[in-house]
What we know:
By secondary structure, the protein is of the alpha/beta class. The protein has helices spanning 7-11, 25-35, 53-62, 84-92, 113-130, 148-164, 167-178, and strands spanning 44-49, 71-76, 97-102, 138-142.
Amino acid sequence: MCQGCGTCVAECSVEGALRQEDFTDGQVMSQIDAALEEAPQAKVLVFACNWCSYAGADLAGIMKIQYPSNSRIVRTMCSGRVSQRLVLYAFSKGAGAVLVTGCHPGDCHYINANSQTEKRVARWKVMLKARGVNPDRLQLWWVSAAEPRRFADKVTEMDRIIRALPQEELASTTTKVKMAVRSP
């Protein structure tokens, strides 16, 4: 009955009980490591669903729509695959901001996985705020494959958020979230 979205992997709290081939936590974390290798505090890490937002980002590139070059895209099959662990890992590696993108509600290729993402991101923002991290640094955005401008505009907005933050806040985030992340 698996649809392949990975939402069950992101929801399951039992470490290692579920995994999604080609999108294991270890594989996604390796992509995050590579994306944030240099100047991580200046980066917008974008989790992009394969079907809509990744295609929207690709089309933005094809159409030569300008947006800040500090964004780094990590492709997932669905926004539902993005777990709290992956978001915290990105922040623990110093990401300036994390943007989770996916299909518009009602257009999810996996029935309603993105509605699960919406609920989880709201919880994560509360958790980040409780840890002293500006919750605006984590956002959820719906982008279809036909909306390259929408993708570019949101990445530009996220870049502005990073630039407006005090350097002390960016520097302290790693310590604030590191304890909540376990290695793959």
